[in-house]
Amino acid sequence: MLPFGAGLASCGSKSVPAETPAPGKKVDATTAAAVIGHVTFTGTPPPVEMVRMTTDPACVKEAGPSVPSDAVVISATGDVANAFAYIKSGLDPSYAFDVPTEAVLLDQKGCRYVPHVIGVRVGQPLKIVNSDPTLHNVHAMPMINQEFNQGQPLQGVPITKTFTAPEVMVRFVCNVHGWMRAYVGVRPDPFWAVTAADGRFKIAGLPPGSYTIAIWHEKFGEQEQHITLAAQQTLDVPFSFAAK
User: Which of 40, 55, 112, 155 has a CA positioned 20 to 30 A from the CA of residue 211?
Assistant: First the structure.
């Protein structure tokens, strides 16, 4: 996405403006501000869960019989990956943002969803690919958007879906391989990011103002902070989850 800088996990797509620009106010690039953040874990992290793939020989061949779960990824220094950062409220609704026409990619590789956490804009294509030589079943289980459940028996043949409403988060499962999970944040604006392996994220291009920024994690829940951004300011906002 164009607003994000280096140091965050790839969301599988490069923003391409829609052919017809969205009507409404545009952000003034000369005054735009940014939020950078670092998500950490305090205390003893939960033990790493191992996923056994022995029910499918093709999965074993691709990834091995047992792999660490990607539900909780915490570095030795406490950095939390795969947390979804987004502007939850405060954005002036008169602003409008072109919807990218290039699809965000959600792959199934090594019998896992890759990336594990991604974001997509409302109306932006989500291209789902099976890169494994085995049957996968893509089952999106939203609370707001339309549920879909579709098999992908053919390697390399994609399916494309779009979401019509904002939602944090849409859970994806595979009904063939019960350990497979992915989470997709559906946003009406480009102001989101996914933390990288170093726990850091950046959301840029924001108009000055007061906002609620939220961090979501599938195991640790959601946290919020209220922030105020001045023109051209880059604000550092740390978040920390803790052992219970």
Answer: 40
CATH code of 83's domain:
2.60.40.420
Q: How many domains does the chain have?
A: 1
Residue 155, domain extent: 33-207
4: in domain: no
Tokens of 63: 């990834």
Q: HEC states along 118-129?
A: EEEECCCCEEEE
Give whole-number Cα distances, 116 to 57, 167, 185, 189, in Å.
Answer: 22, 16, 11, 21
113, burial (CB in 10 Å: exposed 0-12, middle 13-18, buried 19+)? buried
Whole-model pTM?
A: 0.88
Convert the pLDDT of each residue in 116-170 to its tens digit: 999 999 999 999 999 999 999 999 999 999 999 999 998 888 999 999 999 999 9
